[in-house]
Amino acid sequence: MKTTFLDFEQPIAELEAKIEELRFVQDDSAVDISEEIARLEQKNYGLTKDIYSKLSPWQCALVARHPQRPYTLDYVEHIFTDFEELHGDRGFADDKAIVGGLARFNGQPCMVIGHQKGRDTKEKIFRNFGMPRPEGYRKALRLMKLAEKFGLPVFTFIDTPGAYPGIDAEERGQSEAIGHNLFVMAELKVPIICTVIGEGGSGGALAIAVGDQLMMLQYSTYSVISPEGCASILWKSAERAPDAAETMGITASRLKSLGLIDKVINEPVGGAHRDHRAMAQSLKRALQDSLRQVSDLSPSELLERRFERLMSYGKYKEIAVD
Amino acid sequence: MSWLKKLLPPKIKRDTPSGRKAIPEGLWSKCPACEAVLYRSDLESNLNVCPKCGHHQRIRARQRIDLLLDPEGRFEIGAEVVPVDPLKFKDSKRYPDRLAAANEDTGEADALLVVQGAIKTVPVIVACFEFEFLGGSMGSVVGERFVRGVKAALEQRLPFICVTATGGARMQEGLFSLMQMAKTTAAITQLADRKLPFITLLTDPTMGGVSASFAFMGDLVIGEPGALIGFAGPRVIEQTVRETLPAGFQRSEFLLEKGALDLIIDRRELRDRIAELLTLLTRQASVRSVA
Fold this sequence. Notes:
The complex is a heterodimer of chains A (322) and B (291). Helices cover 48% and strands 16% of the residues of chain A. Chain A contains 14 helices and 9 strands. Chain A has helices spanning 10-27, 34-53, 57-64, 72-79, 121-126, 134-149, 167-171, 174-185, 202-206, 227-234, 241-248, 252-257, 276-295, 299-311, and strands at residues 81-85, 98-105, 108-115, 154-160, 192-201, 213-217, 221-223, 263-265, 316-318. In chain A, helix 1 (10-27) packs antiparallel against helix 2, helix 4 packs across helix 13 (276-295) and helix 10 (227-234) crosses helix 11 (241-248). Chain B has 2 domains: 28-57, no CATH class; 58-282, Alpha-Beta Complex (2-enoyl-CoA Hydratase, Chain A, domain 1), CATH 3.90.226. In chain B, a hairpin with a 2-residue loop joins strand 5 and strand 6 (122-129). In chain B, helix 6 packs parallel to helix 7. Chain B is globular, with a radius of gyration of 21 Å. The termini of chain B are far apart. Strand 9 (316-318) of chain A pairs antiparallel with strand 4 of chain B, so a sheet runs across the interface.
């Protein structure tokens, strides 16, 4: 697959094009230029590392939305075995923007739930761009309760621009569907391990992101509103999205320093989309560690810990009042 | 300045700001729904419901508390919790400046007011959103005051009522605001565990992060007539689907029809009917005869 380059990656794109050209020339060349190629590859690695070490929050949002970034089903393939997808909310429909099912994690049965985006146009439409409708959240809820009934840990993967803002979604109770998930997840008696793998878009993301561990991939984002949405409300122009991204604090490192997430999982040099396998490996290790941390707790200890954690969210001060 | 204005001698120049201010303000009010011109004191004595068409105007949090609770034995919970600026947020204005301006305008320190009291002698705790304070948006203070209200309800085994009037989560506190959705909703699971009634009254408007957290988790979910209630705002939906929205879309009556609300209650009957509903839920004698 040919890498899609983002605007700020132009220097990398140029260098990679040059390397490609040399490789082509090498085949029918008398002089050995493999050394030169190796040197350029080294340079490219350094350049990529350099660019990615200085990403602005907005550039980070672009990487989080990269069309080649691994999605939930890619991780399912690399990390889990025996995946059986389960469909539908048993009430209205099967929402393709959320996938879920039974699987094994290192041999241990578990439940996997995640947002799912599509890669090409047809698939994007099929997955509704990863924007769930109420039936998607209700499917997730059903699967979580199923996991609770049979004592299975739940892994959730968050990657959505947000819940779908459509007429039908409103008619079927988008708000209720999201709120109900928050309500049930606060008291679900099995471990819930949540990882933001791409875009964590507002309430539509949170609806499957309440749990015992909250992790983010290095270049994923998590925010209360999209940078474009925030900019168009506060600056009256979506063009100011980079400013909104900066001030809202949407990146994994910023959110970690604010104490809102537990762990940042490093991505391969140049982002997860450059090496799906390597990304999946480090994600798997992080999931193992997270699960180990909570799997020894009794259900009541687990819930108490989760509750305390939820109650601790927020920054305010207290003053004397008469 | 247009050429006509330049020609006019100064003393007959119209539309000067001072000229406008000469009209005494606040005596009359026009109903935004039926355009009837109403005498303000009539409107107020009718709880800001238009006597001609029944349109429910938005009211302030403290007015809401006054119309719901008995005058005696009230006290405020969580007033000690006040906002900070965790992100050093700045758009065209700094967040602390926005907070200060909102405080100046409303007299409130943040967008949620929690009061313990009684409705027709039935003890309750009421949390009420102040829409005039940054659009009733939910940030850390709203979340924490809400939780303190719930805690008080748990300790004293009282019903908890929340009146919403909000645009959603507060952008200026970023992800802290989003997490208030999880925090407030987790808190009300405890009311449910102890079988204490939780009632939500959704008023105009109830959107976004508040709508999509605890608002629909009430044992009873009540709408005020004509209130705009939904997850995404009408403009966002219109831009997304590129269709015009059906008439009455996202209004209380629409939600009732779609099965999202238990009932709609006219503001003028609110106090009586909520008191009755509470006594029914908690298996107490009727308080219908109480004034």
